[in-house]
Amino acid sequence: MRHQGKLVSWKAEQGFGFVVQNGSDRKAFVHASAFADRTRRPAVGDLITYEVEPDGRRGPRAAKVKFVRPGRAPAPRGDAEAFGNLVAVGFGLALAASVIGGRLPLLVPVWLAAMSAATFVAYWVDKQAARSGTWRTPESTLHLLALAGGWPGALLARRILRHKSVKASFRTMFRLTVALNSLALGWLLTQDGSALVHLLAGLLRPA
Asked: How are beta strands 27-31 and 2-11 bridged, if at all?
């Protein structure tokens, strides 16, 4: 059963708030991940429709949330997403070319793939925890996984799972991890960086 109500509180940085059902004082917790339209940022006063599901920690929880009317223009995120895609493609092409050309060993893309898989799983686990109200994965852990080379997996998780894509401070830190990874790849492509990673690969290679 769908209900209609108004957002009476919204914490943009944390990505959650509360909605009160029209014609009553029934309040429900609502998380940013529950919104079908992710191009628009929720705000106090927005009218929404939603379904209610139990949440053991906070009481009723809004699910399958939709805005009732347009209200404000969508947040301008298209250019940012396009830039993120461009960075990812450029990073991948540079990495592939360096491995094919022998400048970097196969260890580097294998490491990035493993870290990306682990990061994607960490995002998925955190989203399930957010839905069920159980223990969440610390944001610092997600950032460390991305910084350690798992940022492509984090990028996929943010797009596919629609998780951790609203909070401004988290997006800023994520972009910083991508920039640092790009700088690290640039250094690895130098003579000193290439020599060091080949040395490490040799030490890790089975005798």
From this structure: unpaired
